[in-house]
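User: two proteins, same treatment. go.

Assistant:
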Amino acid sequence: MASPAAPLALLILLVSLAIAAAQSGQPSSPPRNSTNISDAAALHTVFEKWGLEDGTMPQGYHPCGKLVWSNSSEMEASINCSCSSNECRITHLNVTGYRNITFIPAELFSLTELVSLDLSNNNLIGQIPPQVSNLSKLETWHFNNNRLNESFPNASALLSLQSLWMFDNDIEGMVPGFIANFANLTDLRMYGMKLQGPIPENFSKLINIENLMIGDLDTEGYPFNFTGDWVNLSTLSLRNCGFTGKFPNQILKNLNKLTYVDLRSNNLSGSIDLQQYNSNLKYLYVGENNFNGSLPDQMPQSLVALDVTYNPLLRGRLPSSSADRKMRINYIGTSIGAGSSVGSENLRLLNCVDMKGCNTTGLTNPVSFAVNCGGKQYTPPSDPSTMFNDDSANLGAADFHVDTNNNWVVSHVGTDPFSNSSGIVTTGNGTNMPELYRTARTSTGSLWYYVVGLPSGKYTVQLFFAEIVIESGSGRRLFNIDIQDRNIMTDFDISKEAGGSNRPINRNYTADVTTSVLKIHLYWNGRGTCCIPHNGTYGPLVSAIRVFPSAETQASPPPAAHTSRHDEKRRGVVAGIAALSIAATVISSSAVYLWWKWVSLVKHRKA
């Protein structure tokens, strides 16, 4: 029989061992599914510096048990974790939409198990810290829509990267050549910055690329010589990259999955051999180049929209197959003849727009002009002498509309490769917005308005705006404005200028007309958010346009006054006081009346 003292001795031994372990400073094993202590400490420090958490890290801090700090239409702060039997490691970090976040704490780069890091749409400034190379397991890295600047650090260690979004920053220097080593990269978006070309030839090594979007490079005069065996490429956007020389038709014909090509605003030349393109191509934008020759009579059956605007050396006739299939073609600014597809009056206005023998004889010269962009004809009750013309025509992904009754033309090119972005947007009838601001024409590329037949002179161009798509604080719509080929606004932000979304604002500019044509150009410059509240929410937006001689002083429909909560409360107090005053008057009057009736009744009885 065992001695009764044996269990007691065993208990004393176990307690002694536990005390010794504690005194030796050795940490005990983490509880099941707790967050790795290093990850937890790093995340808490980062969130504390960003104002997402306060104070000292609490005992047993377990962020993998929380996951979400904020999740609204404007801001998101969340993580995701991968857990084993002992602990959880932080693998995903999303902090977006915080305009007060201006720097990246060094502790963030201690989260070495991260596979996804999204810091887009904040207000980050300065250089990207070189410690980003510590995150060698990253597959997704998005830091678009910030104010990061200086040169791009060497991040060649990120060999697992699959998606890299860095657009709409102020990053300088050459296009990083080490990106070509990211063999797993499928989605690269790099535009709206201050980078210089050329695009390195070794980008041909990106054999898994599906979406390649590079633009706005501050360099000109180098060839298009970096394409590779991109068998998975679906979207190719190389807008405003400074290319010159012949366009590689032969190369692109082998990209069988290619559906979207945007090569606008380069200096490419040669012919456009559409017959060599694959059968899946839907959108082709090659406007503002120097292509020559003529378009083939037969177009690819898959083609939905073709933009060849402002290629003055393009000649010939419109392809006959385009009219049969209702394919959209915008050819303003070329020498292409419309043939029988365009009426004589339309053709006369188009010739004026293209400066091809503008004949204004017989045209009703407008003294002024007004258009309700994206909306129906409208006459403001406050100004019955001004009629805003109907501009509700659907222009698809590349087209124009000619109004021969009022001598003006609207032209549009652009569509988002990842959504069916609409060229006309509206706001609900329940809003208190003035009628003129409830519709707008928008574009993910360019909008042109041409007024034809104006007498020579100085004119006031009045542009009407209201951001009716992006809610205040959630995203940024930025675009440029040119009038008569002169830039007058860069990075124009409607919400910022108006003090928020759904607030009307007008801007007046002066322009000289010497050739009977006034040209207004609004266009996307690669800046601003792309996908808030949905894909394709970027580029210019305009509610109405009005043009009149500068010598005249004309009233315009005023923007609706913004109603603040303070004003509403003040009006409520005033209304309440007024109501009480009225009630007091009624009560007093009633009392006097009843007293008079009582006195009369008493006198009557005595009589």
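Protein 2:
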Amino acid sequence: MNALLLQSALRPCIPSYSYNYGCCLREPLRKGISGCLLQNKMNHSGLDSDGREFNNSDEMWREQVGDQSKKTEWYTKGVSYWQGVEATVDGVLGGYGHVNDADIRGSEAFLNTLLSERFPETSMSRHLVALDCGSGIGRVTKNLLIRYFNEVDLQEPVSHFLEAARENLAPENVTVSDSHKAVNFFCLPLQDFTPDVQRYDCIWIQWCIGHLSDEDLVSFFKRAKAGLKPNGFFVLKENIARSGTALSSFFSSQV
């Protein structure tokens, strides 16, 4: 069975920050996504970044993306923000470039556990393929995924980030064997992206899923599930609130 694996990005010595340019309150994923049923719908009220009060996340989403024109504006503003950000580690991490090493160490420990469970030593001859969603400049791919997967595809809607990723992941700029490489670079937003059927052993989604409306999040996971090979897995790594509710309609890198 395909697995939905969740990892909190809140770690000691890493400040809590968010890549959401919208609401960082997420509706639970519904039945049918990797056999996972999350209940206890979040109905807490909260104030957005403009001081307006909403009774719950549904109410805010209706205000922000309640019709097609609003949804188009929502996504356009989000991409426009990132188009003005420099294509560097510090840029894509919202000024927190110093957390890169700690982030990669934590992710690597987590990934090693998954690989040893999913693909034991007797199966390590398997040709492994990963998808890096919201890849930015290829930070996670270069520092982590390309060392463990033979092929990595990158999905990113911001064109100058993706061009930087191409350069960062060129053979002369990575210290891995010839059997490990970045293959495809998809310049598409996540809400419009459909992975190839059964191509991936791992779909890695880090610090970008909050860009999607609840409806588009559920839709993407349904499409992504079909992109996993047998015994493949998702990794969803996001910053979360330890308690309470945070709503924001501010289109930026930090909430």
